[in-house]
Write a structure and sequence with these properties.
- Among the domains are: 109 residues, no CATH class; 50 residues; 87 residues, Immunoglobulin-like (Sandwich), CATH 2.60.40.
- It is 43% helix and 13% strand.
- It contains 14 helices and 12 strands.
- Strands 5, 7, 8, 10, 11 and 12 form a 6-stranded mixed beta sheet that branches.
- Strand 2 and strand 3 form a beta hairpin.
- Helix 1 packs across helix 3, helix 3 packs across helix 4 and helix 13 packs antiparallel against helix 14.
- The radius of gyration is 37 Å and the shape is globular.
Length: 428
């Protein structure tokens, strides 16, 4: 087995690996204890990750703490991103109190959102401009009242100043009234009973389907308009529109030819020695390092696993094993079948064997694996989108996990329950 280089280990600990290498390196770490030990020694693995995550999020989501009001509002308004968004999503998976708080705030926002979209124009209040009659001489003279002890000359001077000021105020008032007379008629405020202009309130249509998608709300109206998924690629948006419209998860073409009837794959008439292959059978696999599992045969001293391509040419074979699992690496984008041979002191038994069908499975190609890895990094909380992408690729096990999370975020949605049931039915 070829181990990771020192550079690959350092890049992995610093989260600097290219996207095309992440999947292959993860598959390798799953089976290589030596490389896992080196990774833990260099990066302190989970401890380093959670230390960095705590610094980025300023330790606002310590164990046992709840989201603050500011965090809840930012999450509902989709103002969070990166590590902050991941931290909140992780917190909501185990904190029912914060889930209810997010749901209540989102419902309140949706309830008041239509009123926030209407532009209200203020009315012109003509009474705000004073008329000459309203400005009485008493009011003008109030600031300039003269005390009795002043001389007659001072009184005359004050009277002259007041007269000049009154004339200036009267001219200014007359000019203001003239400008108001030349202005267009003010637009009256729409009453509660009148219909607002079409330009101020665009026509809306009833929502036919709506689901919470992490920090977003995805909805489809009667005219087929999708909202809440504007950042998704056009192909993903079409996939969401179709599913929200008909509420169906179609069976992937990648599953064709892999399905086997639910009969038991028995290898002997003796129940003590009967055994069967368990997994993978009729599945599409994301990893190209499948782990083969089978049941035990009574009295068996060893097992050998054999893997074949579509033309039944052998492509991999295990040594004689005493365990009930075996892992190997296979080429991507191909269909395989496999069998296991059980050995005892007196006989050799193979499972499955006729009339039972072959145990087949498919490994997704590299392009699809990279696309799905990129979608998971870009839309980690969009469980509807990820579930549909997995189902489209035939990855029913991964799709079921995403739809379970979708139902958890939409506990009262019949559509979420329906999608989960359909994926579970396809797995049977």
């Amino acid at each position: 087995m070829v181990h990771l280089t020192q550079k690959q280990i350092e890049d992995y600990c610093k989260h600097q690996l290219p996207a095309t290498e992440v999947l292959a390196l993860t598959d390798h770490l799953r089976v290589c204890q030596v490389c896992r030990t080196q990774i833990e020694a260099v990066g302190n693995d989970d401890a380093s990750f959670f230390s960095l995550r705590s610094q980025v999020f300023e330790e606002t989501l310590e164990r046992g703490a709840h989201l603050t009001m500011d965090q809840t509002a930012a999450y509902v308004d989709r103002h969070l991103s990166g590590e902050e968004l991941h931290a909140v999503d992780d917190h909501l998976t185990h904190c029912e109190t914060c889930v209810l708080a997010v749901r209540d705030l989102r419902e309140f926002r949706n309830e008041i959102a239509p009123s926030l979209d209407y532009d209200y124009e203020p009315s012109l209040v003509t009474s705000a401009v004073p008329s000459p009659a309203s400005r009485s001489p008493r009011g003008w003279l109030a600031p300039f009242r003269v005390s009795p002890w002043l001389t007659f000359a001072g009184a005359a001077l004050a009277l002259l100043v007041l007269s000049t000021t009154a004339w200036l105020v009267w001219r200014k008032t007359e000019d203001q009234e003239q400008r108001i007379a030349n202005m267009p008629a003010p637009v009256s405020q729409p009453s509660a009973l009148s219909q607002p202009p079409s330009t101020a309130a665009p026509e809306s249509f009833a929502i036919v389907a709506q689901l919470n998608e992490g920090s977003r709300v995805v909805s489809l109206d009667q005219q087929g308009k999708l909202a809440g998924a504007e950042d998704l690629p056009p192909a993903y948006q079409e996939l969401l529109k179709k599913t929200l419209s008909d509420g169906r998860v179609e069976k992937s073409s990648q599953l064709q030819g892999l399905t086997r009837p639910p009969s038991s794959l028995m290898g002997s008439d003796n129940p003590q020695k009967a055994f069967a292959v368990l997994d993978p059978v009729g599945d599409v696999l994301l990893s190209n390092r499948p782990t083969f599992r089978w049941s035990a045969m009574g009295g068996a001293t060893g097992y050998i696993v054999e893997v074949f391509d579509e033309k039944f040419n052998p492509v991999a074979s295990s040594p004689q094993l005493t365990s009930l699992t075996w892992t190997t690496t296979l080429a991507r984008g191909k269909v395989y079948s496999w069998q296991v041979k059980a050995f005892s002191d007196r006989e050799e038994i193979t499972a499955p064997r006729p009339p039972s069908p072959q145990a087949k499975f498919r490994v997704v190609d590299l392009a699809k694996a990279n696309e799905l890895a990129n979608a998971r990094r870009t839309y980690p909380s969009s469980h509807l989108t990820l579930g549909l992408l997995y189902a489209e690729a035939g990855l029913l096990r991964e799709a079921e996990q995403e739809f379970r999370l979708l139902q958890k975020g939409n506990p009262n949605s019949e559509l979420a329950r329906k999608l989960l049931r359909q994926v579970q039915s396809l797995r049977k």
